[in-house]
Amino acid sequence: MRYLLRDQNKFFFKIKKSPHVFLFLDYDGTLTSIVSAPEKAKLPLAVKNSIKRLKASPGFTVAVISGRSLRDIKSMVGIKGLIYAGNHGLEIEGLGRRISMPAGSSAGPGIKKIKTSLDKTLSCIKGVRVEDKGRTLSVHFRLVRPGKRRLVKNIFRRIVRPYVLSKKIKLSSGKMVLEVRPAVEWDKGKAVVALLAQSKKALPVYIGDDRTDIDAFRALKGRGISIFVGRPKRAVGADYYLKSPRDVAALLHKFTLLSLTKV
Ligand SMILES: [Mg+2]
């Protein structure tokens, strides 16, 4: 696994050679550091400025793709006119339209009901937060005492089990978060492929730090460049790794210097 900031010649050669770069950016843990509460993950100003410059450059298209709800991710990034994919790509907005993916699908059945049960049963554990994201639901447990985290997982599993068995929902997980999703075949990888359908000549570059990003790495295999943020050992399917959001900021800055010359 190559560390991108040390091994960048081939990478930048490819970038410079391609007529257009379609940049996919995860948010938490990629553009911002992982913090104690989701609302504290503010986008650093330098990163925001880099993204704005890339958006204005004809050589780049930028999409932010996150597990947060579409509304949440849009307000966290705060740049008008970007492509945004929320709820792991179940909600996409950009290029002048807003769509639910897969086309025509609706909110996950039972999400509200599951939230009510989880709220009730998990309220006795300090630090748990159940977040209704519309089409999906997240249980954050970063603030729960380490000794109680297994209990959170066990209660979660017990509550969601009947819904999983009746195939109403699917489960996934990320860094200190458990998730309920509608039982549709959809993930960040499928969202990326859908977005790329209109930009056949673009070179896709995907940067992400978590398990859900691996679906996108897989989808781009042989077509684009995948960059994992974190320890190389966990970078399943990526072409390169970066060590931290700070590295990502440095890479985005390099892109902006390039974008001045790229047409
Ligand atoms: Mg992330």
User: What hetero molecules are bound to the protein chains?
Assistant: magnesium ion
Spatial separation of the terminal alpha carbons: 31 Å
CATH superfamily of the largest domain: HAD superfamily/HAD-like
Looking at the overall shape, the CATH architecture of the largest domain is 3-Layer(aba) Sandwich
Shape: globular
Strand content: 15-25%
Summarize the helix and strand pattern as letters.
EHEHEHEEEHEEHEEHEHEEH
Number of strands: 13
**Count of separate structural domains:** 2
Helix percentage range: 25-40%
Class of the largest domain, according to the CATH hierarchy?
Answer: Alpha Beta
Alpha-beta content class = alpha/beta
Characteristic terms for this protein:
263 residues, 2 domains, 8 helices, nine-stranded mixed β-sheet, Rossmann fold, four-stranded antiparallel β-sheet
Question: What features would you describe in this structure?
Answer:
The protein is of the alpha/beta class and 263 residues long. It has a 9-stranded mixed beta sheet, sandwiched between helices. It contains 8 helices and 13 strands. α2 (45-56) packs parallel to α8, α4 packs antiparallel against α5 and α6 packs parallel to α7. The model has no long low-confidence stretch (mean pLDDT 92). It has 2 domains: 2-104 and 185-259, Rossmann fold (3-Layer(aba) Sandwich); 111-182, Trehalose-6-phosphate phosphatase related protein, domain 2 (Alpha-Beta Plaits). The structure holds magnesium ion. Magnesium ion (MG) binds at residues 26, 28-30, 208-210.
